[in-house]
Amino acid sequence: MQPIHLEDDVCKKIRGKLNCLPLSYECCIFRVHNILRQVNENAYEPDIIAIGPYHHGKENLKMMEEHKLRYLKRHIGKDTKKLNRYVLALRALEEEAYRCYAEPLTLDKEKWVEMMILDGCFIIELVQKFGDRHLREDNDHIFEMDWIVNTLQRDLLLFENQLPFFFSAGKVREKNIRGDLHTLYKHLLGVVYNNWLPSFSEERCGRDVKFIQCVMDLREAGIKFEKGNENNLFNIKFKEGVIQIPLLKIEDRTESFLRNLIAYEQLCEDRRLHFVSDYAIFLDCLINSPNDVRVLCRKGIIDNCLGDDEEVSSMFKKLTKSVVQSGPLFVYDGIFEKINVHYGKRKNRWMAKLRTNYLNSPWAIISSLAAISLLVLTFLQTLYTIKSAYV
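Given the sequence above, the corresponding structure tokens read:
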């Protein structure tokens, strides 16, 4: 008779954890790691609404739960069977949804499905109302107060505040039209990120990036700054001594938005290039003091809605802290190289000093011309006196 081997309690405990472990290649929604989070924790925390399980149930976010129910009621309408179809469809996708989250989840199945239905339908309704004002009811308190709309726009684009996209596209899945939406766009932040990327590519491979100087130093080498005409924020150009940078509007939510896009690139984006991270590095190089911010504002490159140049300067100094550059690839390496070549030429600095010290105003130009004329006349007079002495 074979001996019976009883599994040790420790083995059972470990095996249970292994069974709950998500498959890493399927994860698309992570928590921001502490190295990034500790620089500015508030930038990753929702202010009024929890979407998904990571912030679900927090006391300060419960004010939106009633609005979720109202939006679900409107979404279902008079079709009494629609809610049941949603529940059955989401139960079938329950395991797939669990695997999208990198962290272990503690919600039971009933609360999980309820949360997904409420959050998913809320996003669908909200996006539709953003796109079409006629869909907004007169008593919709969300659109009656601008601060709620602005805060929702911020919270829905937080890295940790996401649903798998096939839940937000529930109507597509419910009709059994699988498609490739989940493959293309993993969540709402991913939709915004992928549709915001530029088409150009300036990266170089296999060498270290030599960073550029700040705005004030570059101006001393004769480099000028202009507002770019490009619609895409990342399409920065350098041509004939002029850096063209598209307009960046800085509001209260700008730092949070950029930080969460950077977290998305750093933690789960499989692209070789990190456009947002590299853009932040570019601006961090340019902005070293409030004076740099002031110049960019005067040139129409930065629209500072915060009103404080010191605050903007401090924001960009911290924005790239603990951000890992994308290996040997850097989006703006080609532009950096051209700027550094221009900056390294002595004649460019001399000409810049000449323009700054002697040609910076009409009166300065007149004074300089008068001095040159006087010098020439003095030389001619001296030459004539010497010549006359030998005649």
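The longest strand covers residues 224-227. Try to locate this feature in the token string yourself.
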